[in-house]
Design brief:
The chain has a domain of about 55 residues. The chain is about 35% helix and about 15% strand. The protein is built from three helices and two strands; from the N terminus they run E-E-H-H-H. It is flat.
Amino acid sequence: MFSVKITQTLTFFSTTTSRLPVNQERIIQGNLLHTLGARSLIRDLEEGSSFLHANSANPSTVSVRDEVIRLGTKYGYCVTFTFTAKGLFFSPCLFLPS
């Protein structure tokens, strides 16, 4: 058995670290965790609370859209920008409950 170290930044000066034990016999292959992370980042981008918004008072709509498209296509998560009515550009979709 081994463990995974998770560090979370709470504020600019405060972080917390946890170690979670991992049973190697129960490990499954896949990218669900990455897809859930991408979903969270996309939500932050759409709500205006992302890292792009923290680094810039008003990030361009194009840069936000490009990042949403990049995350959606890389992790197979459907977003408003990855499908057009003409079907010119779309990505495989993974529908997750809200």
